[in-house]
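[agent] plan:
  1. take the single chain provided in the ticket
  2. run structure prediction with default settings
  3. attach structure tokens to the ticket
  4. add a short note for the reviewer (M.T.)
[agent] executing step 1
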Amino acid sequence: MKTPFNNIVQVLRLNRWVVLFVVIVSGLVCSVSIMMVAKIHQNGLDHAFVVNGEGEVIPLQWVDQRQHLDVEAMAHLERFHRWFYGLDAGSFETHMEKALWLGNNSVAEVYQQKKADGFYNRLLQYSLVQKVERIESNIKMEGGMMAFQTRIVLQIHRGSVTDTYELVTSGHLLQVERNFPHNPHGLLITDFFENSLRKLEAYESPKE
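[agent] step 2 finished; step 3 output follows
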């Protein structure tokens, strides 16, 4: 004999199958979505695009970063030394802010020491202009880090007087996360030290 309870049981059974079907379909949709997002992400890593001078979008194939690590290290050191030592009264604060993104507290300590010695005050007081004329860096691997030694030729302009100096710095490069635009190469200068500074006489020509 049919009773209202039979209908309830059938409805509950149907609801259970509907819920189970919905759960299974949702799981499949989520799985497919995750795989598609992962594939899109991988494609984004494998390909980059640039805009040339004519406004055309050109695809670039990404290569293993290690193949260009030495090139990026050289560019990182070039960028840092030009910002840290290329100074004038109107730009040194901006340059220092940019340079400090490229190194750890060892760079900040050198900056603070120069500041305590009154170097930047003299820069402002006498309107000095310090230009970086040449940067030469040597890099070698030491364990998991890169050791560097950089030779910089500096010119300090005081009105009509120009003095030329040779500065040698050293330290290590540590790989970190890229931080655009502050640290685009993903490298951090550690153990930074100014090894020597000497004035080049007029008869001396900077070594190539």
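[agent] step 4 note for reviewer: The first strand starts at residue 47 and ends at 51.
[agent] ticket updated
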